[in-house]
Amino acid sequence: MVHTRGAVIRNAPGKYEVVDLEVDDPRPGEIEVKMVASGLCHSDDHIATGDIPAGRYPFAGGHEGSGIVTRAGANTKGLAEGDHVVFSFLPSCGHCRWCSSGMQNLCDLGAGLLTGARWGEDSTRLKLASDGTPVGQMCGISTFCETTLVSQDSCVKVPDDVPLEVACLVGCGVGTGWGSAVNAGGVEPGHTTIVMGVGGIGINAVQGAAHAGAGNVIAVDPVALKRDAALRLGATHAVETMEEATEIAHQFTNGQGADQTIITVGVLKPDHVGQAMASIRKAGTVVVTALGDIQSTEPLPVSLADVTLFQKRIQGAMFGMSNPNWDILRQLELYRSGALKLDELVTNTYTLDQVATAYEDMHAGRNVRGVVRY
Fold first, then answer.
1. Contact 18/357 with Cβ under 8 angstroms?
2. DSSP notation for 12-48
3. Cβ atoms of 224 and 232 closer than 8 Å
4. Strand order of the sheet with strand 313-316?
5. Mean pLDDT, rounded, for 214-232
6. Which helix (H) or strand (E) is 328 found in, with range?
7. Is the confidence at residue 361, as pLDDT, over 90?
8. Cis peptide before 91 (omega within 30 of 0)
9. Are the CB atoms for 194 and 258 separated by under 8 Å?
């Protein structure tokens, strides 16, 4: 057993607080990792607000991280002490229907992401040091811990020369945004693409659309800091509202509309889908990547005639339709070649004790992506 510290939510709504924890020894198929960095993704804030309910509390947050293996249990696919790893927030078993057909992002193990326990079990791997209360793990990894214990199914070994301080970002935000444009949106050379919301996910949808050859990449965000970042990282236009973005798209498409609109706002509302549908052309695609209250059944303000008569498509995107065991390494190679920007994504860095402050900064529009560095 190892003693560590981690940021937990005791109940929702609530704020992250740092507590002393005990981490179990690795079991077969598990590895212990000393964290180097963790991205501060909006999904962990959804845990704090209660938009995404956790299976148990206390719940240790964080699902976008990188670190160095300190111990490995038996049967860990060649992972060993000293290896550098990036976590995939979506585990991949490698043999279910979805993994076997090239859709690792939909692996059946994903059903256990919010239970707090290891897949198929009811037991956790973390406990409060004060009284032994079981602590749930976000996505089975909890990157807001100085040391964590994870399944081999959540780990991708990466080259030692890739800086882990920014490699953590490919474990969620980069792949989700990039893939939302390239995979789910099907951006092609010459397309006109709207990206609605340019935070830690949307900024990478901008990068993905630009990389795929979109002639016009229109970033939409009310925060000037994020619009400026979008222009530096591939957007051709950056505006405050969807009305402006739709008008620009019409100018470039003879009034038809964008080829795809990618929704990457911080908190998804039905109206966002309605605005996106109104912005695209016939046979265009709306990619819904953002999350809001996942228990909401509020109807979408979408014309069924638009769907049928104009062949418009609403496409969900989990982790940008990525295959993490391949795409994480591929994106790091793109980073090495200069085709993918990672260093430029990090607006501010924080200590573990500043996690709650970091989310206050995110809500105040002071961050594109914050990163905890251990």
1. no
2. SS---EEEEEEEPPPPTTEEEEEEEEEE--HHHHHHH
3. no
4. 237-239, 216-220, 192-196, 258-263, 280-288, 313-316
5. 97
6. helix 324-337
7. yes
8. no
9. yes
Q: Scan for tokens 């290891």, then name that residue.
A: 118
Instruction: Write down the pLDDT at residue 372.
Output: 97
**Three-class DSSP category at 127:** strand
Alpha-carbon span 154 to 12, nearest angstrom? 26
- Phi and psi based region of residue 51 (left: phi greater than 0; alpha: psi -120 to 50; beta: remaining): alpha
Cα distance between residue 307 and residue 47, in whole Å: 33
Give all domains of the chain, ordered by start, each with its CATH number: 2-171+341-373 (3.90.180.10), 178-317 (3.40.50.720)
The alpha carbon of residue 60 and the mean position of all alpha carbons in its chain are separated, in whole angstroms, by 17
- Any alpha helices (H) in 101-214, and if so which ranges? 164-167, 173-179, 202-211
C-alpha Rg value of the chain to the nearest Å: 20
Distances (CA, A) of 89 to 96, 244, 280, 345: 17, 35, 31, 19
Helix (H) or strand (E) holding 245: helix 242-252
The predicted-structure confidence for 3-34, as pLDDT tens digits, reads as follows 999 999 999 999 999 999 999 999 999 999 99
Which residues touch 141 (CB under 8 Å, ≥6 apart)?
Answer: 62, 63, 65, 87, 89, 148, 150, 154
Hey, what long-range contacts does 347-356 have (CB within 8 A, 24 or more apart)? 347/225, 347/229, 349/373, 350/40, 352/5, 352/6, 352/7, 352/18, 352/144, 352/146, 353/18, 355/7, 355/16, 355/18, 355/40, 355/61, 355/144, 356/7, 356/15, 356/16, 356/17
